[in-house]
């Protein structure tokens, strides 16, 4: 189909159909413009003058682009699907349109199927002694670490609060510092560096075998850049930024598992404005030259949360990845995708899945890096839905829940505050989402996290080998400690460490005792 002789951005073909309340709809189509390039958005009309965005894509002439999206409606309705492009000179061409609706039960079943396929594997342990099968061996299997990482934001308050330390260490295997590794924290004044807090935090988490994400080396938002940096000439900005990059990366490259290199670079462009259009790509290359091991993340908000934010739609995110990779010297750079996940509007699960589908097609690792949901009666339920959606997508490798705690950001005053309108702001210093209160008592979002941490790991198992000397079980991916008990086995004999990696066939582990 083609929409031609367009006078207004909304001029396009339209298709009417019926929608069912509380169904989750997925949409896809191939789009092309007859000339130029522009963002093409798909919408459905809802009640009155309102409309609901389905998805967006950067379309151009000469090639087809896939638009994927999704939406949910809260009532049965008859509606129309249509498209919008500000490039009114161009015809909009469309092909292979698909719109499918799913009940919540169907959606959840699909998610469960993906979890069983990509987050679990059959484990078969074969025990022998002197080359013969050994039966009646009691085999205990305990998971030490999950492959899918669930972590939490944290603050320097963890350094001097033993109860908070215990709470954190018992739950999480990854941590992101809210502010303590950012340049404005370690370099508040020109020529002076202070790594006291991040050094102590890195040491604490290293001691407890908790991974640390390096967040963030530079921030593209000028409002989050020190005034002394903003006041410098272009050449001095370059010198100061390079000096900081070299300082923080060489200091922590062996202590972190990843770097957020240039925070929010699709929304903001401080370094491009100062140094030229390839500034961020240059810094990614510099970090790679200093640290050849860790993945280098882009880190953005609204790609999942707010489909109307055209700056960070998935196709724009992919374009930015390609720009960084195409910069001279960056061809083989190890990039990764950070999706912050600050859900102020209620999450649209079908849109989240579509966006992750597009991004995962790059083959790059994906993390939800700063996940929280809006304060209110549905906060915990919405957090659970987003976490489940992420865990059910094979392209996502980890989640950082943005629940960094301080006694002052989750106190009674903060917890009593709420958003009565979309424009409301919480009191200064209050966290949007608290997992625990000021006394470390678990709150509903914390209950959700605890429940999923327990659900997404294999609890300790005890099985006995048969005459064939084997035990078999489906387990979550990750690291395990396996021990064996049998009259022929000397007491105190050490067990075996096993790493269950992804695979369709059972993982065969042979043990000679």
Q: Can you walk through the features of this model?
A:
There is one protein chain. The chain is of the alpha/beta class and 513 residues long. The chain has 3 domains: 2-102, Galactose-binding domain-like (Jelly Rolls), CATH 2.60.120.260; 117-143 and 458-512, Sandwich (Immunoglobulin-like); 149-455, TIM Barrel (Alpha-Beta Barrel). The protein has 13 helices and 26 strands. The strands form 5 sheets. An 8-stranded parallel beta barrel has the order 12-13-14-16-17-18-20-21, surrounded by 4 helices. Strands 1-8-3-6 form a 4-stranded antiparallel beta sheet. Helix 6 (234-252) runs parallel beside helix 8, helix 9 (314-326) runs parallel beside helix 10 (349-360) and helix 11 (379-391) runs parallel beside helix 13 (444-455). The mean pLDDT is 95.
Rg (C-alpha, Å):
25 Å
Compute the average pLDDT: 95
Summing up helix and strand content along with how strands pair, one would put the structural category as alpha/beta
Beta percentage is 25-35%
- CATH class call of the largest domain: Alpha Beta
How many individual helices?
13
Residue runs with pLDDT of under 50 for 5 or more positions: none
Number of strands: 26
* Overall form: globular
Query: In the CATH hierarchy, what is the architecture of the largest domain at level 2?
Result: Alpha-Beta Barrel
Largest sheet data: 8 strands, parallel, barrel
The CATH topology of the largest domain corresponds to TIM Barrel
The first-to-last residue Cα distance is 69 Å
Domain unit count: 3
Helix content: 25-40%
CATH superfamily of the largest domain: Glycosidases
Instruction: Give the strand order, joined by hyphens, for the main sheet.
Output: 12-13-14-16-17-18-20-21
